[in-house]
Amino acid sequence: MSFARGAGERDPRAVAAPEAAGAAAGVAAAHPDGPAAAHPAGPAAFRLADGGLDPRTLVLYAVTDRRWLDGTTLEEEVARAVEGGATMVQLREKDLGRDELLDEAVRLREVCHAVGVPLIVDDDVEVAVAAGADGVHVGQSDMEAGAVRALIGPDMILGVSAQTVDEALLAQERGADYLGVGAVFPTGSKDDALDVDRETLAAICAAVSIPVVAIGGIGRDNVRELAGTGIVGVATISALFARPDVRLAAHDLLVRTRRMLDGVRCALTIAGSDSSGGAGVQADLKTMQANGVFGTSAITALTAQNTRGVTSIMDVTPEFLGEQIDAVFSDIRPDAVKVGMVSATPLIRTIAERIDRWRPEHVVVDPVMVATSGARLISEDAVGTLVAELLPRATVITPNRPEAEVLWGHEIQTEKDMELAAAEVGRRLGCAVLVKGGHSLADASDVLWRDGECRWYRGRRVENPNTHGTGCTLSSAIASNLAKGFGLDESVMRAKDYVSGALAAMLDLGAGSGPMDHGFDLASRFVEGPGE
């Protein structure tokens, strides 16, 4: 048996990819789920004190396929995979003769051991032993697991494929160190691969004490669906080796797999700093925390402001903004991105370029252009760049009424006008549009246009003069809920409920338009004061 390759997996990098940080010698620093590079070569290096296989070696299991080579060698592509974060490599080349397979195994062993990653040989026990590989993987139609264990001894790693609980239990009894279970998604690499549904996968994980890796059709777009099944990692072929940049694909899938296993969702805010804490990045990070995601940030500008107004603004350089975004994506990849106020054309273009480079799943843009007074906050040329280069890259944009008027080109006086504006702007930009009615109309009802249809979100206006940061808060709450896996409609609804609650808490700080209470729904013994 061989691990299955996903059929029809979409290329996650249709644009130029950034260089991954570090070369082979630096993998350990960016390789938190794998064994330390200082491990001595050999199977014992990958075992725990009790003799069991360290499950961290299975987080991202790369399975080779020479058919994807395009002017490069298999060693070069495997080196790129482990540099990107692959934690185990299986040599699976059915079309090679025994001598060629042995030579390839020896070469890959050196590549893998140089960075502390185990090498497994598929099916061929003799080649695995002769090459000094760390283990062998067999399927149900290959040599029986107990016989393999007798040949390789107690130290080499033994992986076995299983598709039922009975097969899994028998493999564990016969000496398997880990199980490969699948195909969990449709796959085209093996005609006789059976589908294993989520319930069976979870049942196998619950039945055995050895680690389980999911196999078959797994890629960047579906790995999250495996959360909560009990697996310790994923195995894949084309999601790595069919990609134009194997190193970046490995890093991307490693981050997504770790996120799936850990259950932590992250969001990135790209916005300005508000020294008063009511809007901008400060409001975004509070909102993200309150909505159950880990917030990260990239600062576009520093402001000196309080509840009475802004006294000074200092933009960061486009280079530094790009470095911040790269630093976040290359280590703590966000599940969603919120973009707030960006006043300068070069900064807007930097964000657009980084969106193309890193391709986040969800991008929420709050197109901050017009103040409550009606005054423009960014220049005409910056507005043009925003509309032409950034907004079309968004999942959804969240203009208030004056901003929607700028984008639409007409005055908005009625709910029908809001619908027309949302539809026209959405068709023109190719994204969903949420036009907010709370800015000056009688209520707090918003309309979302998406996929040719409008949906209203009716809201009750909260009579609170302290509304500083409501737009920032709404957009970052939408991003937070998208990051957690909610659909757009539900994300908007949940975000509106959150903003309403923050306003209804009636926080009153400062002499001007003060902030909302972003932590109104947080309960913790650490917020208590003396005597409480």
From TrEMBL:
Pyridoxamine kinase/Phosphomethylpyrimidine kinase domain mapped to chain residues: 274-517
UniProt cofactor(s): Mg(2+)
Cross-referenced CDD domains: HMPP_kinase (cd01169), TMP_TenI (cd00564)
Signal peptide per UniProt: none
Catalyses which reaction(s): 4-methyl-5-(2-phosphooxyethyl)-thiazole + 4-amino-2-methyl-5-(diphosphooxymethyl)pyrimidine + H(+) = thiamine phosphate + diphosphate; 2-[(2R,5Z)-2-carboxy-4-methylthiazol-5(2H)-ylidene]ethyl phosphate + 4-amino-2-methyl-5-(diphosphooxymethyl)pyrimidine + 2 H(+) = thiamine phosphate + CO2 + diphosphate; 4-amino-2-methyl-5-(phosphooxymethyl)pyrimidine + ATP = 4-amino-2-methyl-5-(diphosphooxymethyl)pyrimidine + ADP; 4-amino-5-hydroxymethyl-2-methylpyrimidine + ATP = 4-amino-2-methyl-5-(phosphooxymethyl)pyrimidine + ADP + H(+)
Enzyme class: transferase
EC number: 2.5.1.3
Limits of the Thiamine phosphate synthase/TenI domain: 60-240
Pfam families tied to this protein: Phos_pyr_kin, TMP-TENI
Residues annotated for 2-[(2R,5Z)-2-carboxy-4-methylthiazol-5(2H)-ylidene]ethyl phosphate binding in this entry: T187, G188, S189, G217, I237, S238
Gene Ontology terms, MF aspect: hydroxymethylpyrimidine kinase activity; phosphomethylpyrimidine kinase activity
Keyword vocabulary terms for this entry: ATP-binding, Kinase, Magnesium, Metal-binding, Multifunctional enzyme, Nucleotide-binding, Thiamine biosynthesis, Transferase
Residue positions binding 4-amino-2-methyl-5-(diphosphooxymethyl)pyrimidine: Q90, L91, R92, E93, K94, D122, S161, K190
Annotated Mg(2+) binding sites: D123, D142
Pathway: Cofactor biosynthesis; thiamine diphosphate biosynthesis; thiamine phosphate from 4-amino-2-methyl-5-diphosphomethylpyrimidine and 4-methyl-5-(2-phosphoethyl)-thiazole: step 1/1; Cofactor biosynthesis; thiamine diphosphate biosynthesis; 4-amino-2-methyl-5-diphosphomethylpyrimidine from 5-amino-1-(5-phospho-D-ribosyl)imidazole: step 3/3
Coiled coil: none
Protein family (similarity comment): Belongs to the thiamine-phosphate synthase family.
Role this protein plays: Condenses 4-methyl-5-(beta-hydroxyethyl)thiazole monophosphate (THZ-P) and 2-methyl-4-amino-5-hydroxymethyl pyrimidine pyrophosphate (HMP-PP) to form thiamine monophosphate (TMP).
Protein name: Thiamine-phosphate synthase
Species whose genome carries this gene: Olsenella absiana
Gene that this sequence comes from: thiD
